[in-house]
Amino acid sequence: MQPNPDILQYKEYARRYGIAATPESVSRLTQLVARQDSCVDEIVRVIEKDPALTARLLRVANPRAVDESEYTIGTVDEALMRNGIGCALLLAMGTPLSLALVKTFQTMLSLKLEPVDVHELDSLEGEHMRCAIGFAGKVTGHVYLRMSPATAQAIAARILGLDPADFGPDEIRDAAGELLNIMTGNFKSNLCDAGLDCKLEPPKVGMTEDLVTPIEPGSGLERLAFRADHIQIFVEVTANPWSD
Amino acid sequence: MATKILSVDDSRTIRLIVGKAFKPYDVALVEASNGEEGLTVAAREKPDLIILDVTMPVMDGVTMLTKLKEDPALKGIPVIMLTAESGRENVLQIARLGVRDYLVKPFKEDQLIEKAGRCVTLQKRPVVAPA
Asked: What sign for the dihedral angle of Cα A201, A102, A63, A152?
């Protein structure tokens, strides 16, 4: 079979500009989920080959479990049967989001952010910052970033290289919104490359006490958590494939 | 004469980071927060280099780049895209429009300086000795 000339040309430009590729297992999984006629067995095989994807799928499939001993769904096959293929899409989306967040902290904040289980972090209490970005097209959903006011201020200070006394709430909101923009831009690229074209809405940033994440009918939800020094960040992704 | 660079990004955070990156150099930085404003500033200021985001309100970076390349007075200005979007379609479309380079967010200031230095001359600002 002749290689697609667009893909060859993209690879040439990516090499020239130094653009990093998405992990193979994630690209493959997104492509499979994007095809509505994909066989579940094929998706199961791709997920089972990657221990990190398997662990995340089982976490998504057992949302109430505090640890593995409480899992009622124990296999990839069963998780997909019970939760649908949309669950696999969440996995495919969560990986680029997670990689982009960790890389952003490393390159722009000089902080090593560690992905952790949601239950390992103290839950947010009272008013906190919530950044939301919606995406719509062949896949629809939202990505939410939640953090305490102190974390939001610390992030802005590190990104801008300024003392917290030298900037105000506008800069804090803008820095948090840009962080979310960077994360979602990376995962949107992965979705579009797989044929799940979608457009991002502008980020909305505000303070809230509401910890409930709205889930659209037919959508799945994945919760991710990250920690570095005194910084704790919660990420939530909702997604519904083939929504158009 | 200072090298003139136009930074077009709707994020004040990114514009501040770009400003900080070029601070040690003899660079006059001008800014715009969307593509429409970017075209106006580019026509007025004739910058030596444009650093351009993709996703922006009012007019996005791809539209601005297209219009820039259609304008005989502006099409020669080198453009570096600075964006979180590295999808195949985006990169192909932008590269075919004639962008000089592409930097994916998140980025280090050093990377931006290195890429900008390939397009324009960047000279360190003279260090002023304390009186």
From this structure: negative
